[in-house]
Amino acid sequence: MRSESPTPSPDQEKKDFLCSVREGLRSRPKTIPPKYFYDAHGSHLFDLICTTPEYYPTRTETAILEHHSEEMAEMIGTSSTLIELGSGSAIKTPLILRHLSHDAVYVPIDICEPHLRNSTQRLQTRFPALKMQPLCADYHRLPAHAIKHHVGRRKVVFFPGSTIGNCTPDEAVTLLKRVAALVGPGGGLLIGVDAKKSTETLNAAYNDAAGHTAAFNRNLLTRMQSELGAQLDADQFAHHAYYNEPHGRIEMHLVSRCKQAIRLDGESFEFDEGESIHTENSYKYSAQEFKQLARTAGWHLQSNWHDENELFNVHYLSQSAAEPLKLAR
Q: Where is the Histidine-specific methyltransferase SAM-dependent domain (predicted)?
């Protein structure tokens, strides 16, 4: 299946990558946006992370969806246009699609074109009657008119995986407002959000014994070498992830093992031993905290589902406050 793409050309994408890395390495502290983890290899590594015993979010959210997907589909509307942000391998998506009508439309959006193509083909084989319109795009930049309007079908965004946690709270509000513009009046949002929990559980989830998260983090350096011609020694950067409790977030860093430099596009970026590149945040929210965040962006919580240990929440939000709130387990 061919992917429609409102994104820049490969040359423009390379230019954007270069600009982001250059600006990030100039900043204090140094930082690079986490979206650059996701080339084909990075996406594969993330899939491996999701299978590790330490990484509870995937299996916990999947179990919630398995138990409540029929009710979720009823709230979404079985003949709706379902838009998935950052669809990746779309492993959880069939749990929702199986309850939609044959006249529903599925629009997966992902920044990695090979992953998007493969997952869409797999889903189309499983759900041949559903119309699928894949978009290769950065959903942070997606204009509201990018999704085709289908008369009589409500637009609902599906945003699993607690990817909203990669945004700062202010960035999350901005993204939620963008989603509201994307679905329009009467639209909805089904979103997975990781909950606050013990530091030990969180730290283990981002430091798996198999080393997949470390490889995923360092893959950013490999991309810089192969795509941007950066001169660096990836082995001299260590993966470091920890829960910053005062900020309510996991922080992921690439820490320099020694005094060294990254040379890129005619510039030299110096590192002291112990200095890091901040590569990702993953904010955790209680159900009440996320409800308040969503309200700031104009969304109203209609239903919430969580596991028995309250490790993870799935929320259904609408732009109308008229419907009663449902709490489920």
A: 20-318
Residue 11 lies in a domain: no
143 & 259 share domain: no
**% residues pLDDT > 90 (the chain):** 84
Q: Look at residue 76 in the predicted model and tell me its pLDDT.
A: 95
In the numeric block, the tokens 């793409």 are attached to 5
Q: Tell me the C-alpha distance between 56 and 40, whole Å.
A: 23
- Write down the pTM of the prediction: 0.89
Q: Give, as one character, the DSSP assignment of residue 88.
A: T
Q: Are residues 182 and 244 in the same domain?
A: no
Q: Which residue has tokens 């005062």? A: 246
Contact 256, 275 (CB under 8 A): yes
Taking CA 224 as the corner, what is the angle to CA 220 and CA 225, rounded to the nearest 5 degrees? Answer: 120
Tell me how far apart the alpha carbons of residues 178 and 186 are, in angstroms, rounded to a whole number: 15
Same-domain check for residues 28 and 83: no
Same domain for 128 and 226? no
Burial of 132 (0-12, 13-18, 19+ CB in 10 A): middle
Cβ-Cβ contacts under 8 Å for 81 (sequence gap 6 or more): 104, 105, 106, 107, 147, 150, 153, 154, 155, 156
Helix (H, G, I), strand (E, B) or coil at 114: helix
Looking at the fold, whether 291 and 255 belong to one and the same domain comes out as no
Structural domain span for residue 142:
56-107+114-197+287-328
DSSP-derived letter for residue 324 is P
